[in-house]
């Protein structure tokens, strides 16, 4: 459900652009940011799943703060990779 919400938000953002001249560039930016957000979210969900399996009762689950910084680093790396990859024409 989290990924569906993210997809809808990015789709609305993509459709809200009304300038046709900047559409390919802005579309690439939106796709790159969507990948970055999806990867960061996937890592956070993975970290939460790992934390819940290590919890004795499964109710008191917390993710350490450094996991959020790792997710931010992953999202940033994906965004930079998407930004600097050569474009296909």
Task: Characterize the structure shown.
This protein has 89 residues and is mainly α. It has 3 helices and no strands. Helix 1 packs antiparallel against helix 2 and helix 2 packs antiparallel against helix 3 (65-84). The relative contact order is 0.14. The model has no long low-confidence stretch (mean pLDDT 81).
Average residue pLDDT: 81
Low-confidence stretches: none
Fraction in helix: over 70%
How does the helix and strand content classify structurally? mainly alpha
Summarize the biggest pleated sheet. none
- The rounded distance between the terminal residues' Cα atoms is 34 Å
**Count of helical stretches:** 3
How are the secondary structure elements laid out?
Layout: H1 2-16, H2 23-54, H3 65-84
Search tags:
89 residues, 3 helices, mainly alpha, single chain
Short description:
The chain has 89 residues and is an all-alpha fold. The protein has three helices and no strands.
């Amino acid at each position: 459900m989290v990924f569906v919400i993210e997809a809808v938000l990015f789709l609305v953002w993509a459709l809200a652009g009304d300038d046709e001249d900047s559409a390919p560039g802005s579309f690439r930016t939106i796709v790159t940011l969507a990948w970055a957000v999806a990867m960061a979210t996937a890592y956070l969900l993975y970290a939460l799943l790992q934390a819940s399996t290590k919890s004795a009762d499964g109710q008191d689950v917390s993710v350490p703060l450094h996991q959020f910084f790792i997710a931010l680093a992953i999202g940033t790396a994906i965004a930079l990779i998407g930004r600097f990859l050569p474009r296909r024409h």
